[in-house]
Input
Amino acid sequence: MAPTESRLEAVQPQSIINVHTIQNSLAPTADYAMIANLSPSVTNFSTNGPGLNESKPTLRGFNDGSYNVTIDGIPFGDGNDYTHHTTSYFPAKLLGRVTVDRGPGTASTIGMATFGGTIALETKDPRPEASFVPTLSYGSWKTELAHLEFNTGIIPKTSGGSLIGSYQYMTTDGYRTFGTLRRNTYFFKYIQPVGTRSHLTFMGEYNNIKFNNPNASPLTGQQILTFGRNFAQVADPLDRNGDYYGNNYQVKQTDTGFIAFDSDLGSGWKVDDKVYTFSYNNSSHESPANNGGATISPTTGKVVAGTDLAGRFKVNSVRSVGNILAVTHDDAMGTFKTGVWFDYQHGPRYQIALDYNIANAQALGMVATPSGFLDPLAPKTLGGYVYKMHFYTRTWEPYVEYAWHPLPDLTLTPGVKYMRVQRVIEAPINQTTNLLPAFFGQVYSKTMPLVTANYRLAPHWSAYAQYATGFLTPPLAFFQEDHPENNVVKPQTTTNYQVGTVYKTNRFNADVDGYFIRSHNLPVSQINPNQTGIINPNDLVTFTAKGAYYYGVEAQATYYVGGGLSAYVNGSRNYATYEKSKRRIDSVPQSTGGFGFIYDHAGFFASLMNKYAGPYTTYQGAPNPDQPLPAGALSIVQGGFTMTDLSLGYGAKVQGSFLKSYKIRLQVNNLFDRKVILLKSAKATAGAFNPLTSTYNPLTPIGFFLTVSTEF
Output
């Protein structure tokens, strides 16, 4: 019944969130970010509804892209900067467990950014009995969800083969005006025993999603006062502020699949091999404005640029194929592990300028594309292209480790892994202000030693310690600049230390830990401050700060009171500080907290869950984190906030009927209807904070979701 827990065998802090919590305590529309938010040191919020908009959770102050997200052990993410899109992969109904590992793991832990931790998603396995489980949900903002799951059970004449498959459709208008989202998700997983010691597993998932992309998110203070805290877009196609929803939307397709083979070879040897692929394809209409396009001047009859309603169409795609091989051997003294991870990614990235004035576009003979009329005269483009490129990334990571038992209650696990990453860009038009071509590559590599220890102090009590080194290659933004000196920037490296203890009995489990992470070559990007006229957001100045320190303490505990009632609490105190300037890193919450109650007895179940996200600091006019705040810079602290969610339900099995069971549940998010507005970016006027021009993220108010599921 614990919403988060660790294992006595743990070698680093972790929060295991089981399927019971996912299905009974969270909104049916939840994504993995909402699930991970139950963990200490994780912060996440919604601006359109639970799981109804993309979100970027932070972990110990590390932003998305500085920690891993895996699905059944496969690291996935964007090809340009290793970030993720929470609504585009694996909704909650597909998941059987989520584990938040707050640390780099052992040498066999793979991924681009292990030092920041791993959010490990695990898909459901097939059930041993045949079943059909339809789920229907309806909630606030006309949110509808239908999920159909079937299990074949053990299929006769297949020597134990079984299949799970599901289809999910979700639609919502969203809390924000015209914040609509439509999604179709398909999933299957088939497990086939091979003999008595081996298995073949086939998994596939496909996700198609379309959602409006609010141009006004985040909102300025003036927009909130004028239009309301839920303002996003308008229905007027002639709107000259860039807020028409028909010019602000994204269409995305993702797929993930693997074929895995695992076998017990005997004499202590085991092998596990997994061949996988995933893709992410984003087609985005964005950045509408009335200072683009090409028109014919009514006075001169000549073509003029930059005076028409126009926009941008962006494509960002990645296809990854890879293989994960793991070999283990158990002997009297411990477990030996070795293996290798290989991953190859490539994809196009381009953005073109569009003219939304159809009459003018046709009169000027502009080329019609499926996304609109390509405007070759748009300012700051080359033939209508803002940029055009193709990227390639090859990752090679072998490892070796040995879990040694020098004493019956002590496990020492030294290990080492080597990581080599080659990044290549072929850009006829690079993403820079000069629009020049760029063709180059860079190879990064590092050997990373690690060691962990776990000591069983008593049957229900253990302690652990960990030392590790980390490595993260620069994002593609380091190559997409007019500043060639940044193309040889060093990759980020870290040194991680942490200690902790875990206590578990049938009625009480608890764990506490402390961590310290030293980061070198911290990447920092900002818009070029030397621009004049219309600011180009693609003109970036990217450099590496000297480094940063991340440290803190974390704890979580659950106590079974009795009669089906449990109480839980967790929390963290997190510090993230630039090394040279000694100031806090931007927008990193200083603390987190969670507390509440779980009830499950005689078919009735309920949960009351509170999440606290602590204060954070934002800056304006502070470009270099290695230097103290300059005179006139703003330092604004956003206060913390608490959100409370309530879940109430009843479920029962049915005897002697084709209906095996049923369950009905009411989910209430933001139970006390707190009107939270979070500062995104501070702006100054005459050297003073200006709340009207500063930008904010308004969080969603109270939301209700009624869900009914049955099993046949």
User: Anything to note?
Assistant: The longest helix spans residues 19-25. The chain has one domain: 14-291+303-711. The helical segments are 19-25, 32-36, 221-227, 358-363. Residues 14-291+303-711 form a domain with the Maltoporin; Chain A fold (CATH 2.40.170.20).
